[in-house]
Structure formats: C-alpha cells, structure tokens
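Work package 3, deliverable 3.1, input record:
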Amino acid sequence: MQLRGVRKVYNLGMANETEVLHGIDLTVRSGEFCAVVGPSGSGKSTLLNIVGLLDRATAGTVEVCGEQTTVLDDGALTRLRGHGIGFVFQHHHLITAFTALENVMLPMLGAEEFANDAMRVRAEALIASVGLTAWQDNASGELSGGQQQRVAIARALAMGPALLLADEPTGNLDTRSADEVFALLRRLNAEQGTTVLFVTHNPVFAERCDRIIEVIDGRIATDPQDAVTPPTPRRALTEPT
Amino acid sequence: MFSRRLPFEWIVALRFLREGRLQTAFIIAGVAIGVAVIVFMSALMAGLQSNFIRRVLSASAHIELLPPEQVSRPLRRGAQGIGGGGEVEREVEAAIVQVPLQRMTSIDQWQAMAVQIRAMPQVRVVAPIAAGSALVVRGGATRAITLSGIDPEQYFRIVDLPAKVVRGDTRLLGGDILIGTELARDLGVDVGDTLRVSAGTGAGAVSTTLSICGVFDLGNKGANQRSTYVALRTAQSLLGLPGGVSGLQVTVSDVYAAETVARAITAATGIQADSWITANAQFFTAVSAQTTANTAIRFFVGLSVAFGIASVLAVVVVQRSREIGILRAMGISRAQILRLFLLQGGLLALSGAVLGSGIGALGLVLWQRLARNADGTPLFGLVMDPALFAAALLLATLTGLVAAFAPARSAARLDPVVAIRG
C-alpha cells in the first residue's frame, strides 16, 4: 500500500473549502501492523477512508493491493474494496437484521462468488477464530460490545482481504474487551499476514504495534520509516486528544 | 439462516422489511386499502354496467336491420355556370321536397341475407321480424297494439320471452297470440280467449281472430299494454308483407362491438343497420362517463398509494443510511443497493396488493350478500374477474417499483463515508 502526495480537500472551490490532508506520503509493506495515532480532527479517518477506497484523494496517487486506484471507476473500486480490504469501525456496525454468522456471510453473499455450503463453512470458521461459535446464531443486537466487535472483525476478514483497516475498534469497549479485540487483530496479523492499519487513541495499544504513524493537522508528523523526522512516538502520544 | 437460493438483494430486502415490522405493516395496510378500493370499485362498476346493459338489451336486439327508407328524389336541373367562361355544373333544388310516407316494406332477399349475416364473426343470432301497428277488438273495446311476427326459435334467443310468461305458454302456432298483462286486464281476457286483430285501413284492411296462448310481463306497463307477439306468417298476412320481413334482429357476442359489426353488415349487404349504441346514444354516453370517472378515481387512489410507498422508503433510506454505508464498505455495489431498495418497494406493493385483493374480494362477497332487492334476489350480479385481480397485482407491483425509484437512487448515491459517520 503506497500513498504519494495525497491531498484531500473538502468543499473544493466553495467558500468553506478545507484541506484536510496536505500531501501524505506513506508506504505500508505487506504484513505490517501499524498504529495510526493523532489528535481528533487530524485527518486519521480521512486517511483511512482514502486508503480503504471509500473516499477519493483530491490529488496524489493511491496504490492498494498493487492496483493504481486513481484511474479506477466506482465499480472497480467497489470490487477492489470488497475483495482486498476489510473494515472495522469504532461503532461495531453489524447489520442488526441478521445474526452474527449471517453478518459474516453477508460480504460473501454480496460478492455472489460462493456456493452456499462453502460460504457457511468459511463463516463458521471465521466465527470460531474470533471465539464466538456459541453465539453465532444470536441476533447481532444481543451480543455485547466486545463480541459485536469480534463479529465485525470476522466479517471484515470474510473475503480474505490483504489489508485490514480498523478505525478505533477499541474506542467504545471496556478494557478487557478492548484487550481481546487488540489481541485478536495481532493474532490474525501474525497467523494470516494480513496488513493492519489500526487507528487508536490508546497509547498502550499503539506501543504494542510494529510501527506508529502519527498524523497531525493533515501531515504525517512522526513515522519511524520517515528519514526526515525521527520517531518520537512517546512524546506525541502523551498529548491530549 | 439464509441460503443462496435467493440472491443477495432478496435476502437483505426481506430481512429489512421483517426488521422494520411496524413500518412494513403500516405501508402494506395502506397499499392494501388502496388496492381493495380499486378492486371493489372496479368490480362494482363492471357489475353495475353489465347490469344496466343487460336491462337495456334484454328486450331488444343489439343490431337492427331495417328495410331501405323511401326517399323522394328532388327535381334537379343542370345549369351552366355564369361568367368566367366556366363550365361549372350546378345542381339547383327546384322545389321544396316533402318527406314521403314510409310504407311497410320488406327487406329484399332477407333469407339469403340472414344466412350471410349469421356467417359473420361475432354474430350470434339473426332473427326475422315482421312488426307493425294493429288494432285489437274485443266486444266494444278497441286497443292499438304493436304486432310483432316472430320466428320463436330464433327470436327467443334474443328476447327471453318464455321466462317472462306468467300464464300459458309460448308455442305460437298460426292462430296464436301472446299479449301483455296490462292488455289482458284492459280487455278482461286470459289464456284461451280469442281476440279479433285487424290491421290496415280501407280496402287493404285485413283482420283475423287469434287465440291467446300466453300472457307475459315485460316489467314495463306501457310495453305490457302494447306489445303482442304472433307467428311470423300470421303477421306477414296481417301486415300485407307476404313472405317479407320488416327487419332482421341481430345479437353479437361482444355488446360493445355492436357498432363495428353493424358497420360491417351495412358494408356487406348495403342495408341500414342500427346498433344499440347509436339507438341508445345517451345511455351509452352515460356509461362511458361513468367509466371515465371510475378510471380517474382509480388513478388517484393509485397515485396516493405510490406516494405512500415512496415516502416510507425515503424514511427507510435515512434510517438505514449507516447500514447502507457498511454494506458499501463491504464491497456491495451501488447497483446492488439500488436493486435492494427497488425490491423493497416492489415487495411492499405486491404484498399490499395481495392483501388488498383479498379484502376487495371479501367486500364484494359481503356486498352481494347484503345488497339485495326487496324480494331477496341480489341487486345485481358481480363478476369476480381473475383478470381484474391479476391486473391489480401487476399494476400495484409496477407502481411500487416506480415509487421506490427515487428513494432507491438516493440510497445508491449515498456517500459511504458520510453514511457511516451518520
């Protein structure tokens, strides 16, 4: 995954034009587990949305899963997003009309590439891998926050994505659930080599990541891979958020 | 647990509708009421109209063929055009033309013509009739009557006289006459009595004695006073039409096509043919006006159903925008989201239409049971036309799809980033 000179301007050409990202250069290698930190409103989520192909950069190039996405149309972006990228959000965002297992099956159902049995077997394996087999047939609203977030992770992995984007997945959870979710992400990264971009405000989790990318005011402030700015994660993370 | 037997959009649409139970129930009820009103009204109107038409047509043929009218030919003279060296031929009516007296005449070659008309498509019955005025004398009393000479076998297929006979029968041999109840009372006669019937005046006057074989009730006092039926032969000799007929009566399978068939008959035979539509122009206009009003009402009910579906779906799209965003993030395409919401509109309308058809049918059954004449017979027969229900289902579903289009498009166009942020 590689970003080059990515800028994002909202309300382009209008009076309330605001530039959220000012030229981001970022390379994440396959299999890396990166924390993305920074104060609220610094552009972390926007960055994640652009990497996740939910949003388009105003300028610059975005390369995801080896594809130059700037030139792709909406349909191609949707396909690439469906197959290459998994999302986990702060508010677990399960579809409440479905059970836990069905939520995991939904992306496969939508992709219309799986046979019925294969889809079910895969979904059950994913639910098992997040330790929720006993709850798989419960309505998603009946699960606790931590359980819902684990289902959301299983769902994000349904299509076997190379890149997992987690936007403050632990933000809404109690300490124990948050720990479980973080441990789960680390394990998936270790076992399956899934690249993880993990937005967090929690310095403890950030420090347990391979690499910390700090975004401040739409720029990458500190990144150990960045030769210009030496990594100073500890100081940055103690800033009020 | 869902299965791949259904496509993605169907599964999600059904689940969304099931989850939003109350909303779904309300809009289905709304659609059902609309469809029930449309179904009920359509069947009621169709029943009412066919009842009207049956009443109008039960005592008359759909098409009547008349002998050519006698016309006076005006005197004409050719005149040279004046001035400009023109050779213009002018026709000038030289005198006021008096409308001639219409004598009783027959249709030439009516037997051959009847065969020819009977062979035309749509034509069901062709019955010869020799009708004219006559006087009936009984002691000191005299009454003017309309004497209709008929071929019972054919004519009774047009007008079901046997069903209207209250006393006697309708065998109509050469010396028999059928009279109405009023005439029987006026003359103090009944089945088996004889009447002297005379037609024509002066030297041409013919009279004969006929015996009453039956008394009928046409349900109309005037008709019961004047109408009489005799065998065709008897009327021919009384009216001075030996072997001839004063008209041919025709019924067709589709009463609304009567005018078209009448024109075809005129074109084929050269004989003037009047359909019931031209003969009852005012009645026909009233029926069409009613149809138009009915169509307008149905249209507006349908329109309000459509807006109901559209507004509920618009609310659903707003309520579900976060889920739409999640689905989009999962790799669900815009086209799939569009279909998902179109499908919800179609399903809401279809289930509402099924329910509404049921309610409409129930209403019709109740109506038939409750709305009765004083004697307990149904006010008029209602036809439960399967085509009506099929059309209601199809139209309602199409309406649902069309109504869902705007909300579905707005759902498909939702920016996932904005939708997820809520």
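Residues 110-274 of chain B form one domain.
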